[in-house]
Structures are given as C-alpha cells and as structure tokens.
C-alpha cells in the first residue's frame, strides 16, 4: 500500500512537471535556448541511444571514477572510525570536527585539486572520495563507539586478541550502519564527480553536459540531464540492493 501511494505521488509530480514543461515551451513563454521542448529532448535522446557508444563511454568513465572514489572513501572512513571510535576522548575531540567539516561546501577545493592533479580522472576521484569519506567515517566512528562493552569484556576474558575482537565482535556490530553509510557515500561521490566533470573535465557525463551547455545545444543539454538523473537513480537502486544483501549475509 505504501509503495503504491509513493508511486502515485511520484507519478503525479512527474505528470504535472511534464504538462507544465509542454505548456511553457508551446506557449513561447520561455525561449527554446533556455528550455527545450519535450519532443526535441526525446528526439535527442533517441539519437544518443541509437549510438550506444556515445552514451555508454561517458557513463563508463563516470562510474569508474565513482567506484574508485567510493573505495578510497570507504577504506579511509572505516580506518578513521575504528581508530577513533573505541576512545571516549577521541570521539569527544574529533567527532564534532569531522561533522563540521562534512557540512562545508568542499567542492570549492576542486580548483586546487584540478591544479594539483590535473583535469583528468585523479582530481575527480579525489573530490568524490572527499565527499564520500565523511558519511562513512561518521557512521563507523559512532557505530564502533556504541558497541556493547560487555561483549568486548566477555570476548577478552575468553582470550580474544585485538584482531579477533575487531573481526568477531566489532565488525558484525557495526556492519549495518557502515554499509548504509556507503550508499550515501556512493550517491555523494557520483553527484560530485559529475559536477567536477562539468566544471573542468575531459570525459564523462558531466563533460557531455558542459559541452552541450557551452555549445548552446539545449535539447542535448536536457537529454544529458535526463541521462544523469537516470544514472543516479539506477546506481542508487542497485547499490541499495547490494548493500541490503550484504547486510543480511553478514547478519547470518
């Protein structure tokens, strides 16, 4: 029932948006250079999809950058969480700092990264990893800090060493929030990388958006916007499924 209601709400919003879009473009209230007509956008989408390489190659570049960024963010975030989480003093000292930094508009650092690493993939991976790092670090830190001390004490009395404690007690206890944070990290990394490609890129979905925008090709611009939105939604759904299955597997 809830899913049906959500689908109805989303469908209604989409329908209203499309109707408003058609009315604005058909009436001439908005110039075509600012807002392309839906049929023109569909035509451009059809043209792009009829040449799969034109779509799959940029998507592949963006997904590769986002995957590497997530891997870097996950490793760095988990290490940070496990290093700080067990210490009450460490949590009090560093959690407010990490939380504050996560709220900053870190994209302003991209020009520095581009100047240092170039406009290729390394700078995109760096800014994507930076955005993905904070949700993983915060979730891991909090989850490790909240692990039942009684379980740790019991494991120690049974002779468990530090590595055994981490793998057999702490890891299962923190797996669900950490895996959930990776889904957020993936979304943030992907969106940030697309934005970075738009600012100064040589390939990827964001670069295609920038090329269409600079060429004043409004139908192509909106077509790539649709592709970017679809890519983000599909990746989010796929990653949600993977993380859900992974969480269930760990719990078993």
Automatic annotation (TrEMBL):
Check the record and name the SUPFAM superfamilies matching this protein: MetI-like (SSF161098)
UniProt main location, coarse: membrane
Which keywords does this Swiss-Prot/TrEMBL entry list? Cell membrane, Membrane, Transmembrane, Transmembrane helix, Transport
Superkingdom in the source lineage? Bacteria
The record's GO CC annotations read: plasma membrane
The UniProt transmembrane annotation reads 60-85, 97-119, 125-143, 188-209, 221-242
Pfam families given in the database record: BPD_transp_1
Coiled coil ranges (UniProt) are: none
Membrane topology type? Multi-pass membrane protein
GO BP annotations of the record are: transmembrane transport
Q: Which InterPro entries match?
A: MetI-like (IPR000515), MetI-like_sf (IPR035906)
- Where in or outside the cell is it found? Cell membrane
Every ABC transmembrane type-1 domain range: 59-239
**Which family is it part of?**
Belongs to the binding-protein-dependent transport system permease family.
Query: In its UniProt entry, what is this protein called?
Result: ABC transporter permease subunit
Organism, per UniProt?
A: Demequina capsici
């Amino acid at each position: 029932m809830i899913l049906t209601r959500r689908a109805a709400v989303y469908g209604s919003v989409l329908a209203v948006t499309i109707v408003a879009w058609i009315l604005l473009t058909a009436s001439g209230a908005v110039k075509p250079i600012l807002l392309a007509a839906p049929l023109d956008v569909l035509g451009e989408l059809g043209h792009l999809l009829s040449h799969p390489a034109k779509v799959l190659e940029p998507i592949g570049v963006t997904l590769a950058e986002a995957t590497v960024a997530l891997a870097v963010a996950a490793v760095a975030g988990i290490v940070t969480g496990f290093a700080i989480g067990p210490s009450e003093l460490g949590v009090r000292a560093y959690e407010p700092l990490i939380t504050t930094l996560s709220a900053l508009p870190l994209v302003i650092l991209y020009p520095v990264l581009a100047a240092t690493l170039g406009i290729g993939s390394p700078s995109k991976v760096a800014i994507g990893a930076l955005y993905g790092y904070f949700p993983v670090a915060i979730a891991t830190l909090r989850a490790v800090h909240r692990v039942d001390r009684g379980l740790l004490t019991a494991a120690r009395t049974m002779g468990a060493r530090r590595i055994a404690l981490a793998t057999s007690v702490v890891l299962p206890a923190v797996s669900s929030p950490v895996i959930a944070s990776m889904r957020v990290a993936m979304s943030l990394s992907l969106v940030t990388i697309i934005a970075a490609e738009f600012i100064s890129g040589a390939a990827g979905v964001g670069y295609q958006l920038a090329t269409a925008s600079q060429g004043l090709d409004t139908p192509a611009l909106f077509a790539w916007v649709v592709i970017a939105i679809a890519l983000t939604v599909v990746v989010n759904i796929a990653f949600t499924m993977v993380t859900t299955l992974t969480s269930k597997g760990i719990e078993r």
